[in-house]
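Hi F.,

I've been meaning to write this up properly since the lab meeting, where we talked about keeping a consistent format for the predictions we share between groups. The idea is simple: the sequence comes first, exactly as it goes in, then the structure tokens exactly as they come out, then a line or two of notes. No screenshots and no reformatting. I'm using this chain as the first example so we have something concrete to point to.
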Amino acid sequence: MRGTMENRLENLIHELKELKKDLILQKAGNLKIVRGKAGKWQALADRVSAQWDGVSAVEEVSRQREKDR
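Output, unedited:
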């Protein structure tokens, strides 16, 4: 009986370690996706900023607030 319980416990420990490994790999994959998307957005922001000829967004918001008063 004792051997059976020890085997079950060892199996559970093994399963938990496998689950933990899978979670770590999944998080790492998600992080790569997020970093890739963030990099694309940053590249787009840089392109827009390079071509921007108007007032800054902060100045535009300030002007709109002044108009509304």
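Notes:
The chain has a mean pLDDT of 89.
The CA atoms of residues 5 and 60 lie 70 Å apart.

If this format works for you, I'll send the rest the same way.

G.
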